[in-house]
Amino acid sequence: MNNFTFYSPTYFVFGKETEKQVGQLVKKYGGHKVLIHYGGGSVKRSGLLDRVKASLDAANIAYVELGGVKANPRSGLVREGIELARKENVDFMLPLGGGSVIDSSKAIALGVPYDGDFWDFYCGKAVEAALPVGAIVTLAASGSEGSTDSVVTNEDGMYKRCADGDILRPKFSIMNPELTTTLPPYQTASGITDIIAHCMERYFTKTKDVELTDRLLEAVMLTMIKEGRRAMTDPTNYEARANIMWSATIAHNNITGVGRDQDWGTHHMENELSTTYGCSHGAGLAVLFSSWMRYAMKEDVLRFAQFAVRVWGCEMDFQNPEKTANEGIDRYEAFIKEIGMPISITEIGGKEEDIPKLVESMFHGAPNHGNFIPLTKEIASEIYHMAL
Ligand code: NZQ
Ligand code: ZN
Prior knowledge:
Elements: E1 11-14, H1 22-28, E2 33-37, H2 42-45, H3 48-58, E3 62-66, H4 75-87, E4 92-97, H5 99-111, E5 134-137, E6 149-154, E7 159-164, E8 172-175, H6 185-203, H7 211-233, H8 238-252, H9 265-277, H10 281-296, H11 301-312, H12 321-338, H13 355-363, H14 377-386
Parallel strand pairs: 1-8, 2-3, 2-4, 4-5, 5-8
Antiparallel strand pairs: 6-7
Helix pairs in contact: 1-3, 4-5, 6-7, 6-8, 6-10, 7-8, 7-11, 9-10, 9-13, 10-12, 11-12, 13-14
């Protein structure tokens, strides 16, 4: 096991009607004036925005609001948010939504106290200061409610990049699984795929003797297979939604990833698909992950066979572990298909002739991708071709 530090100070408030506590929580974490940030309207339709305002009013917390965050959030609205927050003396960011809204809020939080362009943090500048963020989660997927990351697309060139730092972990996150019952099936399935992908990015490692985190990752993936199926067939099932929601956080606040090298090459390749074709992040991962595994398997067949046996219930073929490993990948792909996700680039509108552009964009100002398999341009191109 590698040396590590782990600092995860987010205060999680989980369960039915917990959004009603938001006013008191903002007060507890020192906010006086919040910027309520949200997406294209789901929080209005569900009544969440009104409930949040009522709770803030009751706690005497002032607010301004900024809606319109698009899925795979963009730099333009972040800049608008930074300006608004400065003009209005906002001292606390309050995103209501999924990963896109939370990440856009984190970007605004970074930009407000910084003299330069917020994008510097997405090009590797160390993250040191930010406004506090408290999130109300409406989609179980990204894990941004407990993560150190913010992923934003710069409209100048459409580069999707990540800023990260402990300070970006929200002060609190309110997680009411009932809020996720209004999700369209495509978004629920995208979330399930993303959560499993966050486990796989950590699971495929060359670090030895990481039994505890292996087992934690397997537990999250097994839970997602069971509860994912249940939520897809019974979308209002509270217990299924609750297990998925907490899995999303556990999969990505890094408790399952400490002490081991992690890969993330597939996530970096995915960034190009969601920006180019407008698919959800989860759908982009669904398209790529089985091809990445088929490519990467030769690096450590036994690890892939372990994944097949422990997560997908395959029987170990001791004479031919490669056969077991392949069977695990097939079962993963069948599950992804079963929940309604695409499994090829063509299904999301991609074409073979786009691949050189995807590769160039991925490597623009960002030479390093992947760890279990360090990706060169040639390897990335090969995996995109395999995923066609
Ligand atoms: O905009 P509204 O109207 O709210 O609709 C949203 C959006 O269209 C809708 N939605 C959300 N909650 C809903 C709902 N519709 C009905 N009922 C609800 N309760 O869902 C759509 C997608 O939302 P989005 O926030 O984009 O989805 P997700 O949570 O999957 O976030 C994806 C983003 O997170 C990034 C991805 O790259 C992508 O940009 N990630 C962030 C990470 C992090 N910060 O740690 C890690 C992840 O790997 C991921 O990369
Ligand atoms: Zn992800």
